[in-house]
Amino acid sequence: MPNEVIIKLNSVGSFYVGKTSLIRRYTENTFSEDYLPTLGVDITVKRGIIINGSTLPVRLVLMDTAGEERFGSLRKTYFEGSLGCIAVYDISKSDTFGDLDYWIDEYRKIAGDKAVITIIGNKIDLADRRKVTEEEGKKYARSQGTSFYECSAKWGSKIIPKVFIELVRNCLGQLN
To answer: Which of 64, 86, 102, 170 could share a disulfide with 42, CB 3.0–4.6 Å?
Structure first.
């Protein structure tokens, strides 16, 4: 594709928060209860992002990074050159929300302060077990200067494509 722009995005967050599920829901519109933990990094490519009704010559490279600490040194390699990321937590597990400071700090150290971050509270299908309120998520996102969404990768809410399209749009803005 002529003049194709490559945008590299990462996912960060504790293990089992649904990073892989969100990426698969966006790229393949699929969901599985049986994902295995990501070992290191899983790379997915999506082309032809539609923004404002036009297909842009964008190759979106999604780096689904492992949430386990033993892969920390490997993650840093994949953060280099990244323009943005989704920082994901599970609304039913407050410790994954508390871990966001670590994940965002680690990402920003490598990718830089200009990298675009979107915070996602995942698994709203588990609302009956909610431990982190939507307002807590919004407040935290404001304190970090990031956008915020809640969704369910399982349900495949319409917000998931919107999250990635907004992230791509903001990353394109960083290139100009």
So the answer is: 64
